[in-house]
Specification:
Helix content: 25-40%
Protein name: Hydrogenase maturation factor HypA
Keywords: Metal-binding, Nickel, Zinc
GO biological process, one term: protein maturation
Largest sheet: 3 strands, mixed
CATH topology of the domain at 2-67 and 102-112: hypothetical protein PF0899 fold
Strand content: 25-35%
Function: Involved in the maturation of [NiFe] hydrogenases. Required for nickel insertion into the metal center of the hydrogenase.
GO molecular function, one term: nickel cation binding
Bound molecules: zinc ion
CATH architecture of the domain at 2-67 and 102-112: 2-Layer Sandwich
Structural class: alpha+beta
CATH class of the domain at 2-67 and 102-112: Alpha Beta
Number of helices: 2
Order of helices and strands: HEHEEEEE
Length: about 120
C-alpha cells in the first residue's frame, strides 16, 4: 500500500533525527500533507501504528496538518485552489499552471523523549 511505504519513510527520517539527538523515543510527530499530494491522510493515519511497531516511534502520536493547494494567478497573485476546479484561479478561471504549495509531504515537528540515562 502506498501510504504504508510513506509511513515507513517518515519513520526512517524521524528515527534518524532522534538518533542525532541521543536516540530517545519519539513521542509525537506532525506531518504536513499537501491536499494535492497523492497521500490520503486517513490511510496514512491507519497505516502508521503497524509501521511504527518495533521502531523508536512505536506508540507515537501522529498529527497530520493538511496544506491547501496554492497557485499563482497572473492577475490575482497567490490563490487557493480547489481540487474540484483543478489548476485554475477561483476568482477569474485563468490557468495557474504552477502549484506553489500543496504537494508536500514532510515531517514538520517531532517530540522526543529524553534519552534514557544509564544508571551507574
Ligand atoms: Zn485570477
Amino acid at each position: 500500500m502506498h501510504e504504508a511505504s510513506i509511513a515507513l519513510d517518515l519513520i526512517r527520517v524521524a528515527e534518524a533525527v532522534s538518533l542525532e539527538n541521543g536516540g530517545g523515543r519519539v513521542l509525537a510527530l506532525t506531518v504536513r500533507v499537501g491536499q494535492w499530494s497523492a497521500v490520503v491522510p486517513e490511510a496514512l493515519r491507519a497505516a502508521f501504528p503497524a509501521c511504527a511497531e518495533g521502531s523508536l516511534l512505536e506508540g507515537a502520536r501522529l498529527s497530520i496538518q493538511s496544506v491547501p493547494g496554492v497557485g499563482m494567478c497572473a492577475v490575482h497573485g497567490r490563490v487557493e485552489l480547489s481540487l474540484q476546479r483543478g489548476l485554475r484561479c477561483p476568482a477569474c478561471g485563468a490557468r495557474t499552471p504552477e502549484l506553489v504549495q500543496g504537494d508536500e509531504l514532510e515531517l514538520d515537528e517531532l517530540e522526543l523523549a529524553e534519552p534514557e540515562l544509564e544508571d551507574a
